[in-house]
Each structure stands twice: as structure tokens, then as C-alpha cells.
């Protein structure tokens, strides 16, 4: 079983609470009257078809990040980035041993999963295979003196 | 130097190094074309124009092609299927000739000729569109081809992460060439790594005006992590003191996100208030604060909506709506007592627009980044598929998959609460 809690900041909690407590019940009534459909159990719906899709979330995230970062970032890119950053932050961080990515334990026991990886919804083995490992400076090893001369 | 990304808008200040590259070419290239392809020389990547950056980039790519032809290094895999037009092929040929001349003797005029030719080729490479996707230019494909596979070959443009890696890879190549040029050809490998760190720290410091650049730096840095090394931190460079200090990369990321969070939360609050008060103009202005207080008074671990049927009756807004005569006329046909369908649809559309702001914020600020599918699967009330996924947890609404593991949840919630309490205290 996986637990993927999302603990929201207080301001966002308030927004979501008011939305769910007051506005969405009214939307359910409107949905029934306009589209003759019962309320959808999922939070993010368009009220007359079905749950909003990944593509919708991608566009929404792209639009929001484009406003603030000058360029859009997709949820997948953000996830890749944050998981890698979190892992980098927690590897070897002795002040928070419970959150530390214990590479030695992972090497000894491939089924070992550290908390940051579990919280992100995947195993440590998956994280080692897929996150933060795309390219390293070592991949430039083919840049020997001969090739560097050629670049100049 | 800059890490590049191929999407989105870019801000360019010619007085500084081109920090953010969306595509290597843009209208600036077109305007430069009118000036007769004058690029000011390729003497070094320290040149302050984007054009020279790209021209140098192309030069790197071209060198790869040349090396492959000379079979010194097997750089280009079988997926290298770039088709040059006749015009491009002619320019490539002229560059080849000029390069050979340059190797034999260093002639300033020939270097200038080479610069012009490389720039010309770079323009042609980007001006050709290979498919309906405007990004799919020959230059882009070359960059994608430069992605490295595990067996040392280069892979085709199929996977977005490989394409992104390729662009970062190219940026690193340019850094290496830049630094080697700056510090001489006999720079040792470990010295080069030190120089890279220093240059990156300078860049991070100087690009602090651009949140994207900071994120790109972090992403590029994160993608270059080696799992067997202890944790690294991003350096920050203090120009006045000329010293390097380490900054937790998570802190920088959170800082940027929080800046965005502040703006978007204010906007969301405004829109929600407008949505709410647009329906209930007679509602006391302090009602929202009272509602928040009521919500926070809910017992931990309860679904606050269903646990408080008196506070949140499903017909709460509807009853208030019917109490207001003007609103009733606006929402209902008085003669037939039927709902104004157009008004209702407009209201629902507005709520969906609100979702488009809310969902990314929940996604980014709710703690560990989940996948999009996990966020979109959050249930708001009990149904046949399972119980609702929202809980009040010490004044925070907790949304998430409802499979419960006590120790893990408790630990994470405590850690996250501690984090947010610290932020609130600041």
C-alpha cells in the first residue's frame, strides 16, 4: 500500500475547504439541473463529461509555470526535478536520518525503500534507475585531448 | 553560458550573457540576417550575443560530424538521418573547406569567413522545418541525436527527457570548450571540474533575476547527479567577496515556488471571493474568515464536509441564493421557475477555470511531487471506488490517496507540518 499524502499550506487549505464546503455542493446541484448528471466523485472534473485528464493538468501547469518562470514546465518535468533535488538534499543528510537516502542499505538490500522515495510514490530502486541519473559529467569522457583540440 | 530549453518564451538582455535560450534562433536572428550575417566573430563564447552562442553551438555539432567522418570517434549512431537541403549542403561544404584551411594556418580573414559560414549554416538549420511541429528543425534533431545511450552510441529523438538531456549536454559541451579556451589547452580534468563548479556558481548568482534560469540550473544540476556520490549543493557566488558558499538546492527551489505560490494564492483567493460573492453579494464580508475558523475547528481525521452537515449543508448556497430577490431573478425564470441554464453553465465554467489554477498549486505544494494521475484521482466524497481523500490534519487539509500507513503518514505529516510552521513563522 502506498501513502501519498499532500499536506497543503494553510492558505491553500482554506481555499480548498471553502471550495469543497460551499461551492462544489452548489456545482453538484447545477450539474444535475443543467447536464442531468449526478455529482462526480473526483475533485477535478469538468462537471459534464468526466474527470479532467492528464493533458488538462499538463496544460494548466504549463500555463502557470510559464507565467512565473518565463517558460512552461510540465508536471513530469517538475516531478523529475523535485525528486532529484529531494534525493540530492537527503543523501548523506545526517541531521534527518529518517529521511536520508541510505545508499549503503539499498545496495545491501535491493528491496529497501527510503521514505522520500516512498512518499513520491515509487521505490528507491525505481528512483535509482530513473531519477537524476540522465547524464553526468562523466559522459563527457570521450572529450580527450584530441577531441578537445578539434573543438578549439 | 546557459543551460537551454527549447520551449517557452525567453527574456534576452544583450548587455549580459544570454542566460535563457528558448530556441537557438528567434526574431533576433531574422533581424541579424538583414544586417548581412554579421556576427562579430567566433573568437570565444564570451561574446555577449545570442547569435554567437548558437553559432558556436553549431560549430560543436559540426565538429562532431567532422569527427565522425574522420572515424576518430563513433559519434553518430545509425539514427542520424539528417537530410540537408542543397543550399545547406553547399554551406556545409564551404565550412569544411574553411575548417581545413584554418587547421593548416591561422588566418584572421579565414576565421571571419568561417564565422560567417557557420552562422549562415546555423540559420539554415533552424529555418528548415521538418514537420508540422515548429520545433522539429534540423538543429533540434542534431541536438537530439547527440543524446548518449548506455552503450556509448547516440540515440534518436523519441523521448522528451533524452532531448532535454541532449540540450543540457550541449550546454555542458560549450562550457567545457569555453573553459578550456579560457584556461589553456593543458587544463587537467579535475581542474576542469573545479572550473565548471565555479562558472556555474557565477552563473547562478548572476541569473538570479530569472527564476527560470535558477530552475533550469537546478534541473540541469539534478539531472547530472551521480547516485554514488554524497549529496551536493548548489554553490552561490558572492562577487564582492569573491567567495563560494553552498546553498541547499531544495531551499532555492522552495523559495522560487513560494514566490509563485504567493502570487497565485492571492489571485486564487480573489477569484474565489469573486465567485463566492458574485453569488452572494449580501453575505457579510467576514463570512469567509468565519468559514475558515469553522473548518479549522473540525476534529482531526474527519472528512470535514460530511462530518459537519450543519455547517456545510449541500443546499447552503442555494438557500442563500433564493433569499436574495435580485439573484433569484438572475438565476431563475420567474414565470416558469426554471433555472437559467446559461448562467449555470457560465458558473461551472468559472469553477473549472479555478481548477486550472488550483490543481497545479496542489500538485506542486502538497509535499512530495506525485504523478498527475495520482492528483487527478483524488476523491472528494465516499463512493463505490473508495472513501474520500480529504482530511483535516492540524488545520491543514490533507488530500491524497487514502491508503493509510500509520507510521509513514505520521512521520511525513509531522515533517511537513514542521516545515510549513517554520515558513509561517518566518
Properties at a glance:
heterodimer; A: 152 residues; mainly alpha; 2 domains; 2% strand; B: mainly alpha; two-stranded antiparallel ribbon; 16 helices; 56% helix; disordered N terminus
Question: What's the short version?
Answer:
The complex is a heterodimer of chains A (152) and B (426). By secondary structure, chain A is mainly alpha-helical.
Q: What's the shape of chain B?
A: elongated
Low-confidence stretches of chain B: 1-57, 67-83, 143-182, 199-239, 242-254, 296-302, 393-420
Q: Tell me the span between the first and last alpha carbons of chain A.
A: 55 Å
Secondary structure tally: strands of chain B: 4
- Using CB atoms under 8 Å apart, which protein chain pair has the greatest interface? A-B, 110 and 145 residues
Radius of gyration of chain A: 22 Å
Structural classification of chain A: mainly alpha
Strand order of the largest sheet of chain B: 1-2
**What form of chain A results from the Cα inertia axes?**
elongated
Q: What does this entry look like structurally?
A:
The complex is a heterodimer of chains A (152) and B (426). With 152 residues, chain A is mostly helical. Chain A has 2 domains: 44 residues, no CATH class; 93 residues, no CATH class. Chain A contains 7 helices and 1 strand; from the N terminus they run E-H-H-H-H-H-H-H. The radius of gyration of chain A is 22 Å and the shape is elongated. Chain A starts with a strand and ends with a helix. By secondary structure, chain B is mainly α. Chain B folds into 2 domains: 175 residues, no CATH class; 170 residues, no CATH class. Chain B is 56% helix and 4% strand. Chain B contains 16 helices and 4 strands. A two-stranded antiparallel ribbon of chain B has the order 1-2. In chain B, a hairpin with a 4-residue loop joins strand 1 and strand 2. In chain B, helix 8 crosses helix 9. The longest helix of chain B is centred in the middle third of the chain and has 31 residues. The N terminus of chain B is likely disordered. Classes of the chains: A mainly alpha (152), B mainly alpha (426). Chains A and B meet through strand 1, helix 1, helix 2, helix 3 and helix 5 of A and helix 2, helix 6, helix 8, helix 9 and helix 10 of B.
Amino acid at each position: 500500500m502506498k501513502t501519498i499524502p499532500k499536506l497543503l499550506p494553510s492558505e491553500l487549505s482554506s481555499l480548498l475547504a471553502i471550495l469543497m464546503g460551499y461551492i462544489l455542493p452548489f456545482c453538484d446541484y447545477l450539474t444535475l439541473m443543467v447536464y442531468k448528471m449526478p455529482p462526480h466523485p473526483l475533485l477535478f472534473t469538468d462537471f459534464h463529461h468526466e474527470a479532467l485528464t492528464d493533458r488538462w493538468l499538463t496544460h494548466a501547469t504549463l500555463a502557470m509555470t510559464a507565467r512565473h518562470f518565463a517558460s512552461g514546465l510540465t508536471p513530469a518535468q517538475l516531478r523529475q526535478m523535485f525528486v532529484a533535488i529531494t534525493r540530492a538534499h537527503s543523501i548523506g543528510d545526517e541531521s534527518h536520518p529518517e529521511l536520508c537516502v541510505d545508499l549503503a542499505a539499498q545496495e545491501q538490500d535491493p528491496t529497501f525503500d527510503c521514505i522520500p522515495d516512498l512518499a513520491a510514490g515509487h521505490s528507491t530502486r525505481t528512483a535509482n534507475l530513473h531519477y537524476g541519473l540522465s547524464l553526468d559529467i562523466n559522459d563527457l569522457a570521450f572529450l580527450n585531448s584530441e577531441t578537445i583540440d578539434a573543438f578549439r | 553560458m546557459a543551460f537551454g530549453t527549447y520551449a517557452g518564451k525567453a527574456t534576452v538582455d544583450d548587455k549580459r550573457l544570454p542566460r535563457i535560450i528558448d530556441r537557438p534562433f528567434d526574431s533576433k536572428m531574422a533581424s541579424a540576417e538583414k544586417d548581412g550575417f554579421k556576427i562579430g566573430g567566433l573568437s570565444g563564447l564570451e561574446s555577449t550575443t545570442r547569435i554567437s552562442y548558437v553559432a558556436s553551438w553549431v560549430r560543436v555539432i559540426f565538429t562532431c560530424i567532422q569527427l565522425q567522418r574522420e572515424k576518430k570517434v563513433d559519434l553518430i549512431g545509425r539514427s542520424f538521418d539528417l537530410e540537408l537541403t542543397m543550399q545547406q549542403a553547399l554551406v556545409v561544404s564551404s565550412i569544411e573547406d574553411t575548417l581545413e584551411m584554418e587547421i593548416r594556418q591561422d588566418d584572421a580573414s579565414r576565421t571571419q569567413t568561417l564565422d560567417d559560414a557557420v552562422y549562415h549554416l546555423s540559420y539554415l538549420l533552424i529555418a528548415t522545418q521538418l514537420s508540422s511541429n515548429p520545433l522539429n528543425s534540423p538543429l533540434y534533431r542534431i541536438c537530439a541525436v547527440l543524446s548518449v545511450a548506455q552503450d556509448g552510441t547516440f540515440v534518436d529523438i523519441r523521448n522528451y527527457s533524452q532531448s532535454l538531456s541532449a540540450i543540457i549536454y550541449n550546454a555542458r559541451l560549450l562550457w567545457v570548450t569555453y573553459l578550456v579556451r579560457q584556461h589553456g589547452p593543458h587544463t587537467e580534468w579535475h581542474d576542469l571540474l573545479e572550473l565548471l563548479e565555479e562558472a556555474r556558481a557565477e552563473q547562478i548568482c548572476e541569473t538570479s533575476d530569472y527564476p527560470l534560469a535558477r530552475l533550469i540550473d537546478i534541473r540541469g544540476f539534478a539531472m547530472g547527479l551521480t547516485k554514488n556520490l554524497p549529496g551536493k549543493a548548489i554553490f552561490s557566488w558572492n562577487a564582492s567577496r569573491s567567495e563560494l558558499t553552498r546553498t541547499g538546492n531544495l531551499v532555492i527551489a522552495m523559495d522560487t515556488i513560494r514566490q509563485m505560490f504567493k502570487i497565485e494564492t492571492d489571485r486564487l483567493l480573489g477569484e474565489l471571493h469573486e465567485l463566492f460573492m458574485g453569488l452572494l453579494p449580501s453575505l457579510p464580508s467576514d463570512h469567509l474568515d468565519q468559514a475558515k475558523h469553522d473548518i479549522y475547528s473540525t476534529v482531526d481525521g474527519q472528512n470535514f464536509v460530511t462530518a459537519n452537515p450543519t455547517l456545510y449543508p449541500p443546499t447552503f448556497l442555494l438557500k442563500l441564493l433564493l433569499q436574495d430577490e435580485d439573484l433569484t431573478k438572475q438565476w431563475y425564470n420567474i414565470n416558469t421557475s426554471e433555472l437559467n441554464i446559461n448562467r449555470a453553465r457560465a458558473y461551472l465554467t468559472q469553477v473549472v477555470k479555478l481548477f486550472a489554477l488550483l490543481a497545479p498549486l496542489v500538485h506542486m505544494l502538497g509535499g512530495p511531487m506525485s504523478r498527475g494521475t495520482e492528483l487527478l484521482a483524488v476523491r472528494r466524497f465516499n463512493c463505490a471506488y473508495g472513501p474520500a481523500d480529504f482530511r483535516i490534519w492540524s488545520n491543514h487539509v490533507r488530500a491524497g490517496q487514502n491508503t493509510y500507513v500509520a507510521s509513514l503518514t505520521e512521520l511525513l505529516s509531522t515533517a511537513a507540518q514542521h516545515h510549513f510552521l517554520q515558513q509561517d513563522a518566518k
